[in-house]
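Per-residue structure
===
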Amino acid sequence: MANETNNNEYSAKNINVLKGLEAVRMRPAMYIGDISSRGLHHLINEVVDNSIDEALAGYCDNIKITLNKDETVTVEDNGRGIPVDMHPIEKKSALEVVMTVLHAGGKFDKNTYKVSGGLHGVGVSVVNALSEWLKVEVKRDGKIYCQEYERGIPKYAVKEIGVAAKGESGTKTTFRPDAKIFKITTIKFDIVTERMRELAYLNKNICISIKDERDGEEEVYHFKGGLVEFVQYLDSAREALHKPVYIEGEREGTIVEISFQYNSGYSENLFSYVNNINTHEGGTHLVGFKTALTRTLNNYGYKNGLIKEGKINLTGDDFREGLTGVISCKVAEPQFEGQTKTKLGNSETKTAVETLVGEKLAEFLEENPSVGKKIIEKCMRAAEAREASRKARELSRRKNALDGFGLPGKLADCSISDPEHCEMYIVEGNSAGGSAKQGRDRRFQAILPLRGKILNVEKANMNRILENNEIKTMITAIGAGWDLDFDYLKARYKKIILMTDADVDGSHIRTLLLTFFYRHMKDLITNGMIYIAQPPLYRVKKGKEEYYAFDDAEKDEILKRMKVSGKEVITDSNPENIPTDESGSPRGVVISRYKGLGEMNPEQLWSTTMNPETRTVLQVSLESAANADKIFETLMGDDVEPRRAFIEKNAKYVRNLDI
């Protein structure tokens, strides 16, 4: 009878229909990924993408982005301007349709845009929906038109507000991200410049300027060399073996543009794009490039006697060691696998890239025999060193194999064997490792203490890497192989958490670990399996009250909440000065500054840093693979000057440490 009653209560009135942009505001993460900093900055990308589409169509060559003092953002281009005439079906201005209706835009009409980045037609309308207010101005047909919105709702109909200068056209959009939607609403200049720099490299005819009115910072990106300059930028901290190779052409309706060069390093750094979208997972265009590269270099090597018959067989991996390259394709009807648009599926694109690269690279090698010889010699050295990677396979055993190794850092494994429910803490030092082992939940938390700093893999070849005990320990503990043999699905833990001290040495160790994972177990990062623990910096104690603060701002907020004056604050660095009451308990507030994980006892480490119910961990992600590669090479490579420049530029962001 109860079920019947429940069924009667479920009727037409329970069916909600979200109209207009209500769905976007109700579920914003469905449209922009999340409502954190990443989603906030994605709003700018959506507006800029419209301008880029105008540029791809040949009508725009200048984009200006301004971060205004009032925390609003303005994006202005010199394209054709969004149409303002009456839409035949919607019976209102086309501008209003574009700004307020999902899946509306010129991207579905291939006569308007033969190539476009945003496929779903939801971009600028989503920005409108998630803005406290938005104002759009259009210069078109010698006039200036305007419309304003509040949380996606028009304040008035599109109206004419002025006369445009002769020959001027374009669209200017200003918006304020809605504080009711986003956790933070402050746009970061550096995050904006990362994507804009990338777009300027990919579109050599476009000038993109970014100005921050809040502090006067400004960048202008216009790279006439396009992908050639992009490759040189990516390899600026590496020793290049030759000038970048450049290939451009069109096959089967696909526009292909590629640049690559070899360096003295050991990593493969290939970045692929389709219609300016970074295809992190590659796809048919990347497969086509790799296939053509291997076949063409192999044929050239044998033909010119650089590769001897029967001596050694080179593989595709050998031909890509030390290779940095960018593959960019413009495809009219791209088919992406999944909603994330990170892997291209068009089979005709593979054929187009493979054919073009095969023809153009063969010509280049014949015309530049000295470069061809350097490349083949580099590939031969890679093949000879490849045998060392076989040792890694022996390290990818589970617990029974671990017992056979007398490694300095012993893994304290967890009792649950299902990786979905297991996590491993990689801990700096035996002291912190001991506290972590005592404080952990043994059912699902494993502890791997590391002694000292691991090898900087950015500067090392396979043999040196495999000789490092700490690296061997990690490879064995994770149990999924490494480098070319790595399979993240075989990892013994769904979460791998890096836990280091909050000082300079701890930051260095964390960077070394991240460099290793990025270069040799990258899928752990791309699949969201690497995390960074956030141990507290302070303990604030008053009587029986005890709080933990992760930075100075949180410490000050706790003191404010406790209504404590400066005179009552005592640091535990001068315990002899701490006044006590009759029972011997401290009078006032005692602040303890943790300089290392080992200073916390097991209970404190568990409650602040390891308890899933109360801890804070940062998930490591790749917002831009090309930028990540550049940063790792800058920080960990051989060239000192780029590292010095990076440190000087970013020193202002470093938290004050007591060291």
